Amino acid sequence: MTFHFDSVFYYVSDLDRSIGFYREIFGFPLLSRDAVARFDIDGVLFELAPLPAGELPRRGGNARLCLCVDNVEAALQELKGKGVVTREAQEKSNGVLGALEDPDGNELCLWQYKQ
Questions:
Q1: For the chain, counts of helices (H) and of strands (E)
Q2: What span, in angstroms and rounded, lies between the C-alpha atoms of 109 and 26?
Q3: Which residues is 40 bridged to in the sheet?
Q4: CB-based contacts of 87: which residues, under 8 Å, 6+ apart?
Q5: Is 95 exposed, middle or buried (0-12, 13-18, 19+ CB in 10 A)?
Q6: Per-residue pLDDT reduced to its tens digit, 25-77
Q7: In this structure, what CATH number is given to the domain that contains residue 6?
Q8: pTM of the model as a whole
């Protein structure tokens, strides 16, 4: 059996709201929408799926969408300018990490590699 990458996805409580967030805040191109919404992020398929009926929104899971940026501080400032609540950047041994949440509390990370 051979395994191939398919997608990364988040469950969301309001598909329209989440589509707007990822399009307006990050400018991700929406590829398609049927039961789920599909975005292309540098050739990686990222999907938003409606939360299954009867399930409560999940917070604090171990999956993260991590976006690489040239400057975390500048990216956080730009996001704040768009009304997004962000956390302070953290220096790590091999780079700088920033974080924010989408409207359903899914954590997104911003990563800047050390030069």
A1: 2, 8
A2: 13
A3: 45
A4: 98, 99, 100
A5: middle
A6: 999 999 999 989 999 999 999 999 888 777 776 665 657 788 999 999 999 99
A7: 3.10.180.10
A8: 0.75
Please determine, for residue 83, whether its predicted confidence score (pLDDT) is greater than 90: yes
Give the structural domain span for 47.
1-52
Which residues are bridge partners to 44 per DSSP? 41
What are residue 24's phi and psi, to 5 degrees?
Answer: -75, -40
Q: Are residues 8 and 47 in the same domain?
A: yes
DSSP 25-54: HH-PPEEEESSSEEEEETTEEEEEEEPPTT
CB atoms within 10 A of CB 59: 10
Domain count, the chain: 2
Whether 59 is covered by a domain: the verdict is no
- Cα distance between residue 89 and residue 112, in whole Å: 10
